[in-house]
Structure formats: structure tokens, C-alpha cells
Amino acid sequence: QSVVTQPPSASGTPGQRFTISCSGTSSNVGSNYVHWYQQLPGTAPKLLISRDNQRPSGVPDRFSGSKSGSSASLAISGLRSEDEADYYCSVWDDSLRGTVFGGGTQLTVL
Amino acid sequence: QVQLVESGGGVVQPGRSLRLSCAAFGFTFSDFGINWVRQAPGKGLEWVALISYDGTDQYYADSVKGRFTISRDNSKNTVYLQMNRLRGEDTAMYFCAKGDGSGSGYGIDVWGQGTTVTVSS
Question: Which chain B residue's Cα is nearest to A45?
Fold first, then answer.
């Protein structure tokens, strides 16, 4: 069980605004940058959001990140069928002295 | 373009060893930390190890500490993961992943395609 918690699954409809949460503690989310990754079936993960809310070039502006205290969120606006994937948050943990990943959220677009 | 290419995976018996390699292209390799991240079949991502830009600092997940060793050769733009005393629970796809900074505390910005390790008798 990960020290950083995400809902294991979620679903939404096309066009909907959707958020995925990533909850941690003061030793990880509360004190370090959170990063978000998208993993399409059978492929390597891809960086979506870095350092809480920075979107790398090439990532659509439909994706955004935010953080408050020890919780972070990934928001997807205008949900599309191609957004159906697994989403992971990651963060450095000062106590563990390592990176921790959330358990991942499998997003289904109905 | 930035690219990471893993190699060295395969099928190995429990208790044996395997060494993975990760060749890097398209960036100043000696400026960045490099991670190994694994994913067991049907499971989520698990961070395994990190080595700092100059190789002086290494960090490990508790699940591999004392069995795995991460190292790098900046003259060859290559990172290695020496895996000893392998167990069935080490069976996974192993990804090499570039840090977006020199060492600890940074995220990952580029991933390799992965190499598969299967531990089975």
C-alpha cells in the first residue's frame, strides 16, 4: 500500500471536467513537488504535469495540476475518449528518502 | 531527441543475478539523476532506485535495498542496475527514467520503453 493515495478507478463522460486526487503527508506532498504521469495501455508512462502545476510542451492545456497542503489534484477538462488511461502521481518523500508513486487511477471514458 | 534505451532483461531463476543497462541519448547525461522504476504485471508503478548526476549518491526502495545496486558511467552515457538474489516478486517491466534535476527531490521527465525481467524456476 502506497504512502500516497489515489482513487483506484474513476469514470467520466466526454466533455466532462474531471479531477483525480493524490493525498499524502507533510513528508511528501506537503513539502515537495508533485508530478503526474499518464500511461496508455501497453506503453511507457508519459509526463503530464511537473512541479505541481507545470505543463511540459506538447501536453494539451486541458490538463492542469494544483496542490493545497498535503493534497494534490490533476484536472482534465473536456474529457475525450483518448484520455482513457492510468494516471499516477509521484513525489519525493523526505522520510523514506525516495520517490513514491500513488497507486494509480484507471480512468474510463464512458 | 532525448531517449533512454534499456537492455539486459530476461528470464532468470530465483536467487540468481541480472544486470540491466540504460543507454541515454540527446541530453547532457552527466547533469541529471537517473531512476529505475518497475511495474509488475497488472500493477502500478514502483520506484526502485536513483543515482545522482555524478554517481556519488544512490537511493533505494526498501524492497530492493541490499540486493540491487545502481551505478553509472558518464563516459558511456549509461546507467546500470545490478540485481542480486532475485525473487519472484521482482518480476516486472523495468523502466529507466531521467530525473528533471541533478539528484534527489526531483521528478521524472523522460521514460524509456522498458525491459522485462521474469524471475521463475
Answer: B111
Record: contact A98-B60, CB cut-off 8 A: yes
Residue with cell 527514467: B97
> Rounded to the nearest 5°, which phi and psi values hold at B90?
-85, -5
Phi, psi of B29 (to 5 degrees): -55, -40
Grid cell digits, residue B50: 536513483
Place of cell 494544483: A66
**For chain B, which ranges sit under pLDDT 50?**
none
Can you tell me the distance from the alpha carbon of B57 to that of B103, in angstroms, rounded to the nearest whole number? 8
Which chain B residue's Cα is nearest to A43? B113
Q: Which amino acid is at B115?
A: T
Q: What phi-psi label fits residue B90: left (phi over 0), alpha (psi between -120 and 50 degrees) or beta?
A: alpha
- Containing H/E element for B37? strand B34-39
The whole-number pLDDT of residue B97 equals 98
Check the CA dihedral B89-B34-B25-A61 and report its sign. Answer: positive
Nearest to B104 among A50, A92, A100 (CB): A92
What pLDDT does residue B105 have?
Answer: 86
Strand intervals (E) in A1-110: 9-12, 18-23, 34-39, 46-49, 63-68, 71-76, 85-93, 98-101, 105-109
- Side-chain half-sphere CA neighbours of B53 within 13 A: 13
Three-state DSSP class for B34?
strand
Q: How confident is the model at residue A66 (pLDDT cuts 50, 70, 90)?
A: very high
